[in-house]
Amino acid sequence: MAQKPKVDPHVGRLGYLQALVTEFQETQSQDAKEQVLANLANFAYDPSNYEYLRQLQVLDLFLDSLSEENEALVEFAIAAAF
């Protein structure tokens, strides 16, 4: 199971989302990638996060994940779109 990203509690939501994106991009663990992408997908359900997700290009991350061989990543990416 992936650990929570190491984030200064004072950085706020944008900093937390940035830490998730960085963890997704840098980790080699498929389990960690799945957990992080699922977390990002959950943030995508809240319209107040849209500007942060757009700024961090998380939408592109979801689209790129659609071509992954890992079916869980594809499912989480699809879930984020709905």
Task: Note down, in words, how this protein is organized.
With 82 residues, the chain is mainly alpha-helical. The protein has one domain (14-80). It has five helices and no strands. The chain has helices at residues 12-26, 30-44, 50-55, 58-65, 71-81. Helix 1 (12-26) packs antiparallel against helix 2, helix 2 runs parallel beside helix 5 (71-81) and helix 4 (58-65) packs across helix 5. The longest helix has 15 residues, at 12-26. The termini are far apart.
Key features?
82 residues; mainly alpha; 0% strand; globular; Armadillo repeat containing 7
Topology:
Layout: H1 12-26, H2 30-44, H3 50-55, H4 58-65, H5 71-81
Helix pairs in contact: 1-2, 2-5, 4-5
Organism: Rhinopithecus roxellana (Golden snub-nosed monkey)
InterPro entries: ARM-like (IPR011989), ARM-type_fold (IPR016024), ARMC7 (IPR042462)
Protein name: Armadillo repeat containing 7
